[in-house]
Amino acid sequence: MKPQTIIWISGATEGIGAGMARNVPYADARVVNLSRRQHPELETVRFDLTEPSTWAAVSQHFEHELERFQGHRAIFIHNAHFASDPGFAGEMDLDLFRTDVTANMEAPLVLADAFLRACRPGYEAGLAIMTSASARVPMEGLALYCASKAALEQWVRVVRRERKARGSGPWVVAVRPGFVDTPSTRVAAEMSAQDYPAAPALKAAFEAGQVLDPDRAARDIWAALPPDPDTSILLFGDTPDGV
């Protein structure tokens, strides 16, 4: 019997992405990891956020799997993120800055658009994009990160309204998962306060246990999907003081 649910999760090899993969609430789900690395257990489509030439592999997989899909639901969770070193605008390495723009602003929009194009009528389809409180909270040393998350949330707001106006197509939502214990947040907590002023506050939050376990965060997110039709952003957790 063919799976009735197909779920793509970008960056399912660690952090929130791994938590989302471990806690999929559909027993019949076929879960596909989209990542640079092969997942030890999951089917994987290899691609790199920083290399536009690899994005077509993801688009083609969406199209191939959904062209004749006869199941109940298809969901794309865009979670992957290219973690560059924090730094003040105008002071970062120029090549790294350009790579960051490509990976964290261009890639998510290209992949999200590819998923929308691949979906067909006849089954539930949904797109969830992981963002952050940084979309609304100015964080010194993370100007580009903040801008990318704000851009993604605004894209979601507009596209949700477009889908509603058309009366068709996937549900679309942005997800602020809260402060989750991931490899990237642990690295950020140890950064120099000179380059990333919020680092001491992040470190203090870890020491105080004010972080979310990735599995708990994932279960909360899954429980909120699909979102209410008028909801553009799902909010979870709190931002530590000083961040």
Strand order of the largest sheet: 3-2-1-4-5-6-7
SS strand fraction = 15-25%
Tell me the distance between the termini: 49 Å
As a percent range, the share of helical residues equals: 25-40%
CATH architecture: 3-Layer(aba) Sandwich
Q: What can you see in these coordinates?
A:
The structure is a single chain. This protein is an alpha/beta fold and 243 residues long. It has a single domain, classed as Rossmann fold (3-Layer(aba) Sandwich), CATH 3.40.50. It contains seven helices and seven strands, in the order βαββαβαβαβαααβ. Strands 3-2-1-4-5-6-7 form a seven-stranded parallel β-sheet, with helices on both faces. The radius of gyration is 18 Å and the shape is globular. The termini are far apart.
